[in-house]
Amino acid sequence: MTMTKEKFTYIPQGVCSKRFDFELEGDVITNVTITGGCPGNLLGISRIIKGKTVKEVVDAFQGVHCGAKPTSCPDQIAAALTKHFQSN
């Protein structure tokens, strides 16, 4: 059985990052490129979530806030993954 490979882009809201580009095989994240934001932190996040399932990442990142903001880049990653899988 071959896993479905797909790519999608998400434009985050309320954070410094400008764009997330995801690559998935089934429900496993194979790559994410984040444009804008804090380069070191976001490169680290990109590496940490590679190979993880969507559920693992959503469970870990959903609800994380950045200072006084009601969201964060990790929270927006969770939102992107949730929105993508709810619409597919």
TrEMBL record:
The keyword Transmembrane does not apply. Keywords: DNA synthesis, Nucleotide-binding. Residues 8-84 form the TSCPD domain. One of its GO terms (molecular function) is nucleotide binding. It is an enzyme of class 1 (oxidoreductase). One of its GO terms (biological process) is DNA biosynthetic process. NCBIfam families: TIGR03905_4_Cys (TIGR03905). Belongs to the ribonucleoside diphosphate reductase class-2 family. This is ribonucleoside-diphosphate reductase.
